[in-house]
Amino acid sequence: MRGQTLGLRIVPVLLAAYLLLGTSAVQPQAMAPDAALSALWEQPHDLRDQDLFNGPWDAARAPDPDAVYTFLRLKTTGTNPGVVVQDPAGREWHVKQPPHNDHGEEGPVEVTVSRVLSAVGYHQPPVYFLPSFMMRDASGTRQVPGGRFRLHDGTMHSRGTWLWQRNPFIGTRPFQGLLVILLAFNSFDLKSSNNSVYDVRLSGGRSEQWYVVRDLGAALGESARLGPTRNDPGRFERQTFITGIRDGFVTFSYHGWHPELFRGRIVPADLEWAASLLSGLSDRQWDDAFRAGGFTPAVAGRYLRKLRANIARAQQFSNAPAAGAVERR
Question: For the whole model, what pTM was predicted?
Answer without folding.
Answer: 0.87
